[in-house]
Amino acid sequence: MTRVKPLTPVALVTDHTVYACVMGSRAFGLATESSDTDRRGVYVAPTPLFWGFDKPPPHVEGPAEEQFSWELERFCELALRGNPNILECLHSPLVEHADDTGRELLALREAFLSRRVHETYAGYAAGQRRKFAADVRAHGTPRRWKPVMHALRLLMCGRDLLRTGSLVLDVGDMREPLLAVRRGEVPWPEAEAWLDRLTEEAGEAARTSPLPEEPDHARVEDFLIRIRRASAGAG
User: Fold this and answer.
1) Per-residue pLDDT tens over the stretch 24-65
2) Which residues lie below 8 Å from residue 113, measured CB to CB, with a gap of 6+?
């Protein structure tokens, strides 16, 4: 068997991306004139690259600024765990590229959803709140308000996902209240009370959520195996 020459990380992204979207504030409806354009993507490393000792990277940063991509298997693993960043990539309203495999992946996005999102969404927000609390103890207020805004947005998104079973990224009519937090116009006690209320509402939603207890692991794995086999045959 001929040894397969490894591809550079840049080549994996430029030549093997199956799905690409815009994330961050632009996808959330929170962009301002100074907002960056955060691009995220999924690439499928050719199957023969996994046969040697030097495996393809599970993710690649770049090549453009504010660009980050995951190899399909890693992306699916994280999505099945309920990782908010990954799940939200699959629901971005700003899709820039999707080939046949990418469209299959999008068609699977409901299979990744489960009540696990309560733990992951609330867990991320709780981690951020510990940082805010440390800032408040040291300085009387959070040093940066943008993470406070995003913690609020994340809790809103997770709460509504648990309530409805659907993941919607755009904040709609909450744009201005959230941007007021980002500008530091909302006193910390008020922002903290808002975080407390959203955390409680997310917990209540989790108890009656229409989402299944676990994601559809078998369906996702079947998809991954089919893509790997097709790639092996193409090689």
Assistant:
1) 999 999 999 888 999 999 999 999 999 988 899 999 999 999
2) 87, 161, 165, 167, 211, 212, 215
